[in-house]
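SEQUENCE-TO-STRUCTURE ENTRY
===========================

Subject: a protein chain together with a token-level encoding of how that chain folds.

Sequence line: the amino acid chain in single-letter code, read from start to end.

Question of interest: how does this chain fold, as expressed in backbone structure tokens?
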Amino acid sequence: MAESVNQMTQWIVQGLWGGYTAANVLKWYWWRLNGFGYFWGMLTGIAAALVVPKFFPSSGLPTFASFGIILAISTLGSVLGSLLTAPEDKEVLKRFYRQVRPWGWWGPVHELVVKEDPSFKRNTNFGRDMFNCIVGMAWQVPLWAIPVYVVFRNWQALWIALGVLVLTSLILKFNWYDKLAAEDDPGTFSAGSDPAAHSGA
């Protein structure tokens, strides 16, 4: 179906991002997503990446606009695939929720966990976690940029990239890594959970 290398590259980008974004985001923040929802979200997203551009052959639909359409189709596939099939086992959901403590739509699972362990605490660090996610994304950029600048001998850009890497590493060290141990206290997790699993998440 592709007529050029550029079209193939665009499909790979749209298929990977639009096709898997919804399923991979929902698996962390929505308790009802199951394996079927994940499968159908991926499948409909990748299929949409193939089909959607064919509906706009003359207009040349921008990549960003097509991404939104593909993402919406993939999200619908994930939601319907989950709601039309049985939910995951409650014990699996409770164990995951205890260890990872995700924020999002986990109300029913939270209630089950609190019934078993009234001392369990909900994750209330949404703002800090989101800030660390943004810093983490910025931290990744120098990792691939530094070798490129070395090859092209762009020393000024290299030093800037190294500075960004050091700065973001320090922020993540003090605002994320050091706080993992502080959160892994006996009152945070139930007796049957594994704090080490949370630290490695």
Remarks:
- Residues 5-88 form one domain.
